[in-house]
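Chain A, query sequence.
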Amino acid sequence: MPQAGPAGAYSGRVGRKADDLELLQRCIARAPGSWRLFVDRFAPTIKALAARFLRHLGHPGDDASSEDVVQEVFLALTKRDYKLLREYDPAYTVKTYLGVITRTEVHRSIRRKRPRPAGAEELDRAAPPQPDSTAEVERVEERDLVLAALESLPPRDAEILRLRFLREQDYKAIAAKLDIPEASVGQTLYRAKQRLLDVLNSRRPG
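Chain A, predicted structure.
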């Protein structure tokens, strides 16, 4: 019987991580039924991540859009003889690694749906490859920490930070969106950033 309390929870996480890793290795080895089990296990997680990433980037995180990303993630995982699965670093959870790939596919999905300007094909060819480094995983983990911290801020603080740093809107657009004087945007943004830093500092270990 699993141990109750924090120690039991930690033991459960370790056991699940080992189980996920074993399943991933079975997929690489093409064990019968392994890929179907992998899809069934991780599709809900990938769909939830896709919806969250889409919403934070100002796009609808509806079922149809999220499902499209899920299909693209699984397609990416199977390419070149499961190359992305082979590059998985066991120092991180499978869920964290899939989050990196999901974020990449969300950005690609958004690009595909934009009007195609002249020369767009050249830009696509110059796009960075799927992330496969420890540094990239750590960067995405930090981004997830920031996004979670945003949810704990007062709604006005969270909104102005999203508008400025996620949607890259200028002060004039932010002022119109929030119905505040343009001259006050800078100070409001500064205070929101300070509150965000306070939350992040309280949540980071050490």
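The chain is about 75% helix and 0% strand. Residues 1-11, 116-120, 126-133 have pLDDT under 50 and may be disordered.
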